[in-house]
């Protein structure tokens, strides 16, 4: 048995069939699958620590997770061996050794999420898993104007689920763009961290701006209110994908 080392995985997944990332008492999660298959592969009891606890139905191109192991398998080879055991909707994109004290939730990072809206008259079956279908016309220009109010450091209490328990609701958004390519409107946001359901509430509010129910300048009032009731609805999970994390 070798000395213990800490390994980081970059994990992509289609979250449609899972009860989110975090372990749940009655439901399969990304974390439970990784723990089970890593334990079987390495012959040890493995418990991964994820960088982002994505909700049920949310997808990822590159969530990060670390775990400790005494295996002799080189860290960079674990991804190949693990992918042979994982279901097809979870694929490890890479594995590497990191410092023993590296913790993906306790270090400075930039996380990027994208919320995709399929904005057309009828749905497309092949996009039902990774977009939210919305058939009313949306003004991308108005959505862009509204999004600009959210860039920077703000108290995002209005954009946080009331069920969340956090020390502070102040967060920093580095960039927030709204782009349309054919029938897909993509809301892409990069920040230092996000509150529970924050990106989906931002998306739901921007949709209300896009359909004319709210004016772009209303976003400043919503921020100032520090009240969940002031913002729009929480957009469905299926449209949200974590694109990746940059550790500083």
Q: Short description, anyone?
A:
With 248 residues, this protein is α+β, with helices and mostly antiparallel strands. It is built from five helices and ten strands.
Explain what this protein looks like in three dimensions.
This protein is α+β, with helices and mostly antiparallel strands and 248 residues long. 21% of the residues lie in helices and 30% in strands. It contains five helices and ten strands; from the N terminus they run E-H-E-E-H-E-E-E-H-E-E-E-H-H-E. The chain has helices at 30-42, 75-83, 140-148, 198-210, 218-225; strands at 5-13, 49-50, 59-69, 90-98, 109-118, 132-133, 152-155, 170-181, 184-191, 240-247. Strands 1, 2, 3, 4, 5, 6, 7, 8, 9 and 10 form a ten-stranded mixed β-sheet that branches. Helix 3 (140-148) packs across helix 4 (198-210). It is globular and about 60 Å long. It starts with a strand and ends with a strand.
Order of helices and strands: EHEEHEEEHEEEHHE
Runs in which pLDDT lies below 50 for 5 or more consecutive residues are none
Helix vs. strand class: alpha+beta
SS elements, strand count: 10
**Beta-strand residue percentage:** 25-35%
Percent helix range: 10-25%
Q: Could you report the average pLDDT, rounded to the nearest whole number?
A: 95
Distance between the termini: 32 Å
Radius of gyration: 19 Å
* Number of DSSP helical runs: 5
Tell me the quaternary state.
single chain
Specify the biggest β-sheet.
Answer: 10 strands, mixed
Shape: globular
């Amino acid at each position: 048995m070798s000395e213990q080392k800490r390994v980081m995985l970059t994990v992509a997944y289609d979250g449609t069939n899972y009860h989110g990332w975090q372990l749940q008492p009655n439901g399969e999660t990304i974390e439970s699958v990784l723990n089970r298959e890593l334990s079987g592969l390495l012959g040890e009891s493995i418990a991964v620590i994820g960088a982002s606890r994505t909700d049920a139905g949310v997808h990822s191109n590159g969530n990060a997770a670390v775990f400790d192991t005494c295996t002799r398998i080189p860290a960079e080879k674990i991804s190949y061996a693990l992918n042979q055991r994982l279901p097809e909707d979870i694929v490890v994109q890479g594995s590497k050794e990191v410092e023993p004290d590296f913790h993906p939730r306790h270090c400075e990072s930039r996380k990027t999420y994208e919320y995709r809206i399929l904005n057309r008259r009828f749905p497309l079956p092949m996009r039902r898993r990774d977009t939210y279908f919305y058939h009313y016309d949306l003004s991308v220009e108005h959505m862009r104007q509204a999004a600009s109010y959210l860039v920077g450091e703000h108290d995002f209490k209005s954009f946080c689920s009331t069920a969340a328990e956090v020390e502070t609701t102040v967060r920093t958004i580095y960039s927030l763009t709204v782009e349309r390519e054919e029938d897909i409107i993509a809301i892409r946001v990069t920040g230092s961290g996000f509150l529970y359901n924050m990106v989906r509430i931002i998306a739901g509010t921007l949709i209300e701006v896009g359909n004319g129910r709210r004016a772009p300048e209303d976003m400043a009032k919503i921020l100032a209110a520090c009240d969940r009731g002031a913002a729009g609805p929480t957009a469905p999970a299926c449209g949200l994908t974590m694109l990746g994390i940059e550790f500083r």
